[in-house]
Each structure stands twice: as C-alpha cells, then as structure tokens.
Amino acid sequence: MEVGEARARSRPGSAVGWLTPLIGREAELADIVRLLECSRLVTLTGAGGVGKTRLALELSVAPEGADSRECVFVELAPLDPSDREPAQVEPVVSAIWRALAANRAQVPWPSLEALCDHFSARHALLVLDNCEHLGVVPQVTELLLSRCAGVSVLATSRLPLELTGEATYHLPPLTLPPAETSDPFAAVLSSEAGRLFLERAQRSLPAFVLTPDAAPLVAEICRRLDGLALAIELAAARVRVLAPRQILDGLSDRFALLATGPASTLARHRSLQASLDWSYQLLHEDARALLRRLAAASDWPLGAITEGAAPGEVVLELLGDLLDAGLLASHEHGDVRRYRLLESVRDFALERLRAAGEESRARRAHLAYFRAVAADADRLLETDEGRRSLEVETQNLRDALAFATRESPEVALELAADLRHWLLLGNNPIEALALCAAVLEAVPASDRIARAKVLVTAANLAIFGEDYARARVYAEGALPLAAASGDPGTQGLGMMLAASAQRSIDPRASADLGRRAVDLLRRSGDRHDLAFAVIQTAMTAALLDRFDSVRTACQECVSLTRGLPSSWLTVLIEVALAWAELGQGDPRSALAHAERGLELEGRRRSLGHYLALAHKIRALTLLGDAARGRELARTALEEAQRSGLGVAVSGLEHALALAELGLGELESARALAFKRFGDPHFAAAANAHELLARVELAERRAGPLGRHAAALRAAGQHTGNDRLLAIASWADGAAALLRGQPEEARGPLHHALTLQINHHLRTDAIDTLEAVAELQLLSERAEPAARLLGAGERARTELELFRIPPREEHFADLHTRGVALVGADRFATALQEGRRLTLDDALAYARRGHGQRVSAGDGWASLTPTELKVVQAAGEGLTNAAIAARLFMSHGTVKAHLAHAYRKLDVATRLELVTLAREHNSVSSN
Hints:
Elements (H helix, E strand, L loop, with lengths): L25 H13 L2 E5 L6 H9 L9 E6 L14 H13 L9 H8 L4 E6 L7 H11 L3 E6 L10 E4 L13 H6 L2 H13 L10 H10 L4 H9 L6 H7 L3 H4 L14 H10 L3 H10 L4 E3 H6 L7 H10 L4 E5 L2 E5 L2 H13 L3 H17 L1 H4 L3 H9 L1 H14 L1 H10 L1 H6 L3 H14 L5 H17 L3 H16 L4 H15 L4 H18 L2 H17 L3 H15 L7 H15 L3 H15 L5 H16 L3 H18 L2 H17 L3 H10 L6 H17 L3 H18 L2 H17 L3 H17 L3 H17 L3 H18 L8 H15 L1 H12 L3 H10 L16 H11 L4 H8 L3 H15 L4 H16 L1
Helix pairs in contact: 4-5, 7-9, 8-10, 13-15, 13-16, 17-20, 20-21, 20-23, 21-23, 21-24, 23-24, 24-25, 24-26, 25-26, 26-27, 26-28, 27-28, 28-29, 28-30, 29-30, 30-31, 30-32, 31-32, 32-33, 32-34, 33-34, 34-35, 34-36, 35-36, 36-37, 36-38, 37-38, 38-39, 38-40, 39-40, 39-44, 40-41, 40-44, 41-42, 41-43, ...
C-alpha cells in the first residue's frame, strides 16, 4: 500500500490541523504505512504535543480517486473523560457516526451493531484520534475489527490500547539542530524542529526572518524544547512580542511562557503545562510517584532507579507505563538501557515533586547511589569501559556533589575526595573548580586527609585555567594537612599533588617535592599511587627539558602499571615521551607517541588529549608538514577555548605559532607569541621568547634577538633549565653573528653546544652547529664551515628535521660566500666530507677542531652514550624492537645507532657486534 492509499478522500470538517502544513515526518509516514500493510490495528503513541494528531490527519486524507478505501477521521478528544465505563459505548459510537456524516455517508440509528453492519462489507481505514482518556475505546475497536474484515484502525493515544494484534508506533520528537555545528543557520533549516519554528513564527509575524545572529538562538530553543511540536509552535507564536533571545531566556519558566495556544483547540492542548498535566492524570499513582522521583536527575541508569524504589514497587512495569505515555525516553549506552526525562517533562515533574514534599528524599536516594559510584571511581578510571561509564554519569555526579554540598557538607567532602582524579580528567575545569571551591567553603574544619585531597585537586584545576595565584593558595593549604595525617601513602600523595600544582610556578621546588613524595609512596606499597607520582615527576622533568629523566620516569611507570588494566596514566606517559622525543630530535617517534595518546583518549577532550595534540602539531611541523599542523591547531583551539582549559590553549597556541613559523608566516607567529609575552607560567613565557627570537633572527634584527636571549637566560637561571640557558647562548651568538662579530659569537655558541650535547638536545644542536658554520665563514674558514653545513644537512635528513623557520635564502648566501672564499670545487669537496660525518662526529668536530680536519674516530671511546646503551642492549640479545621499547626510541633510531656502531667498531654483522659487546662488558665488569 502506498502512502496515498491510507488516506481519506475528504478532509474532516473540524480538524483544525489542516490549516497548517505538515513539517517533516517523511520517515514516520512511510513507517506507519508499512505497519498498516501488516496489521489492522496500529496505535500511534507519544508524549502530549509531539504531533500524533497532525500525523494521523496527514495519513487520513488523500486526493480524490487515489483508491477505493473509505477513510474516517474520528475526533475523540472533546468527549467527556468521565465516560470511561466499558458499558458506556454510546459517546464513542456517536462520534464515529458523526464522522461518517461529515463524509456524506448514509447514517442509520447510531448504535454499535448498526456501526458494525455499516462497515461489514466495506474497505475502510478508521482513524480514532485521542483515545487515551476513554476506557471504552479498546472494546469498540476490538468488536469492529472482529466483525468487519475490511476495516483497519489507526489510533492515536498517549497509551497503547493493549489489544491482541496491536502494532504500536511510538512517535519521536522532531529532529533537532545539532549542538556542535559551524553553520547554525543551515542546522536550523535542515532540522524538522527548526523548520516548524520558522513556519509558525512567520504565520505569527510575517516579517520574521531568520538572521545569522538569531539562528543559534532558534536552534537552542528547539533543543531546549526537545523537539515537541506543541511547545515549538507555542514558542514560535511568541515572536509577535518577544525576540528569539527573550524567548530563550523565558524558557527558564517555560510553563508561563508557553501558556496560551489557539482558542480553537481544547484546553488541554492550549498550553504545554495543560498537555503534560493531562498525561500525568492518566497515570496510575505509583507511576506518578516514579515520574516525580525521576525529576531529581536528567539521566538515569536502571540501578539508580531501583536503588530509590519503594518496597514492593514493580519498577520495570512502571518504567514501561511512563515510556508508553511518552513521558520518559530511553536509549542504549553500550549494552545497557538508560532513561531520561525530556527537559519540559522534567520541569513539570520537578514542580510536582516539590509540591508533594518529596524532593529531599528523592535527591538523597540519588546521592546514596552515586556516592557508591564515586567511591569506585579510581578503579573505574583504570579501564576504557570504566572510564566511559563514569563519563556518562558526569551530570549525575555533579548533581550529587552539588546537593551534598548544600545538605551534607561532610559527605560532599568525601565525595569530592573520591572523585579527585575524575575531576582532573574532565573537560570542564571551570565547573569542576567551582564544585571543589563550594565544598571547601562549606566544610572549613573537616577530615584532614579528605580536605587535603580536595585542596590539591582544586590547585591543579586552577592551574588548568591558568589561575596561578589561586593554585598556590590551595597547594600551600594542602601540604600541612597531608603531613599531619601520619600515613606515608597519604603524605606522599598529598605532597605529590602539591608538587604538580607548583610545577608551572616553581618547577625546581616542584621537582624536589616530587622526589620526596615518590620516596614516601614507595613505602606505602600502593602501585597505582606510586605510578601516578612517578609520571608526575616525568612531567616536571619535561617542563625543565631534562629528557633523560623523563625517559627514566616513564620506564618506571610502565613497569609499575604492567599487569594493571589499561590505565589513564598511559596517556600521560605517551605525552611525556612525545615531549622528550621532540626535544631530543626524533619527531617521527614523537608523532607516534602523540597519536597513541590521542588514540587512548578517543573522543574525550581532556587536558591529556590537547597536550598530545599540541605535540603532534609540533612534530608535524618539524617533519615539514606545517600546513597540516596549522589546520589541526586552528580547529583544536576553538574547542579548547570553549572548554576553559587555559593550559591547553597555551600549548596549542605555541604549536600553532611554531607551525606558522615553519610556513614562513613571521607576522602570524609573532602575534601568537606576543599573546603569551609575560605569561606567569614560566614555560609559556619562555616559549614565547624562543619563538620571537627565531622570528627576529629570520628578520636579521640583532637588538631584539639579544633582548629575548636575556629573557631566556633569566628563565633558565630561575628554573634550572639547561635547555633554556643553551637557547639563550645560541641566541646571543646568533645576534653577534648578525652584528658581524665572530669572536663575540664564539663563546656563547660553544657554550650552547656543550649544554645541548650533554642533554642530547639534537634538534637545538643542529641549529647551533649551523650557527658555528656561519661563525667559521665570518672568520674566513670556508672549508670547516662547509663540513659543518654538510653535516647539518645529513643530520636533518636522517632525523627528518626541517629548519624552523626555513631561511633558504640565508643558507644559499652562506654557500655563495664559501665558494667565493675557496672556489666551488674545494667548497663542494668539504661539503661532501661533512655529509659523511654523523651528528655526534660533527658536534665533536665543531667543539674541538675549530677548522682542523678530523676523522670519524673508532673504538669503544668513539661511541656516544646513546650508541653505547644500544650496543649493550644488543649484547644482551635484545631485538631492535625490544631495544626501542627499553630506551623509549623509535625502531628507525635504533637501526641508525647500530649502523654507527658497526662502523666505529669495525664489525659487519650483528653476531660480530653481539660477541664484541659481550667481551667488552665482561672486561668492563672485571
């Protein structure tokens, strides 16, 4: 049967719905037609005001000549709801006869028997609209269907008729504009709810036009009204007197705003509250009580509903009643079903809950259930499944914490302490900090351990939002409480959390505090807390650019978490390792670690996600794909700014500035760097100075470059960060070169090289190596300069490191100057000699040779510390993959180190290398 075949030949005379067009519902129309092909009784159910009658009208009327089916639309809504006794069938029968008269049928005496006789030989679709209030409708329907083989019935009701063979179709709300969209205008026009609002608004006020400014407001109105057609129509009618912003604001009291509909409709259809009250009165008292109780939260797992059930209450049956009435919605999460009230229904039920004096009891039952969930939060965070289960309860946990803060502050403190890691891992630090602050204020004198945990959580959340002064206050309040607890585990954890809170303010003090915390936690025996503390020390070491310490800490953390379920700590490990790889010149490995961290976070937009993404963008830029890095950074920045994660915004802005610099967009990079100029977070400010130093170098401005060098040196001295001191010396040397003063450049550049070699900072060391080459040229030593330039080219190729910013013209000029000094052949020969040097050999050459020819060197003494570690691991029989895992480096980096070792030790096979390594280790141990 086609859609038209289910429709009547003429329109019901009193059906006011035909005065307006049907918006959307194409899929629902097709679904119901298919059901009518298979079943003679289809009941269209759904919440009051969802649009059941309007859809039934559309199904009941077709153009003349569409088919031979007689279609009768029967309006039952006006009948007195007191006529519910099964014996009183006359009002319903009379209504059907009246509908037949409207269709110009020959109407005999209005009795049920006569009605059956009338339809016994006919092919008809009987549409019974608004059946829920008349208990006799199922009896009449069943008799007609049993006696009249050619009759089908389409009923609309807020409850099923509960007859054998009945097919129930629950009509969902209208489709909504998506919440996350870059084009709210298109989102409104593509949604059924949005189009209905516009159509009804323009009927109320023909001059109404959807503007770009109004589109997001209209979209939010539709979402707040859950796509209920009646509510949207009532809201749209208000455009005659209110602007969209005022309508949206008025939804805080939606029942007052949406109070008056068309006078031609029944009273229970003229306002949102009347419609909901009608559905509510149709419920059994136990179902009403459950509906009231569900108003305590917006989304429920079944366990939380049964937790607060009254003794003997049949919860599943009552949930079914509420679902049938359209007052409750359900959805699947994983392999379980959850339940939620539409926002309008919840507001209505909340009024009834308060009027019944049951709100406190309902919220206490809700708190009791989620207090148990909070107590298990740390265990749940250990697995992806558990973490997802906490994410879906986000609003419930926040609601429970807010209620406990008002009603049971001591419970709130315990709850916040149990949820400390969950609060830190969330994507709304502003709200989380507000919850912690409210709890701390509500319980000024309380359990020392719980208060210390909440204080430290608040300190970390304040840092996430870049409120460092507030963070210091919270951290300093936590330390004496943790110290007074007397328990090494609590002392260590409190000390570690306080250390991480101080990290951005005073990293050296944080590192010292972190070491003491780890020592205490080693005595506690809690592997999870110890692992958490160790990875925090790794993050502090990364902030200080002590990347060997980062690797050591990560290696220990991996060992501590081995055998535990997949841990959220793994994300932090990947972030720290990506950081180390970037600093030490392996962007390919950094990219792999960053992408692994992003994969572990999935769709979560936590701080870990944004830090991993910032490292990915930096790695892409160093690998020469700055355009892709810039695109990722711009998109992520919009998300991070909405989240309130200030630290994430800072990291992404730095990554974006680096990408702009990689593309040669100096002004864009400068503007981004200036945003962090003078930032209280020392690392953000130092990053800004380093970026600006590179911009000034590209523009050949010695004075500003020297000033940035001074700022970097001050930051390095304050924090004990040798990398910053090295960058400062490099910048000083580069400024001297710009001034044409090679002797003034020599000391700073060689000081920078020494620090960079000691800390294996290969990325920076190549920049300095190239600066030393320029120094040699200024001293008219073209061949040593060529060797260093050649070695720099080889190192960049092997490590896949692009120069930031590119500066091609500058390096072409250096080649031209070298050729002018010694001729093209000699310069090319020296350049080729340099290309045969490893980076370690080239760095050694730059430091000691100052122009003397140097061989690559051989023997064990020629191995770099990293090459020696790789060879020793190979001597233990480890594969390349195992060596990479142990030393936290890429598979390709292991192969490169082994290749260097083969040449320096003059061996040709791995077996020779392993044998030689074992002999050497044996001699060394003796």
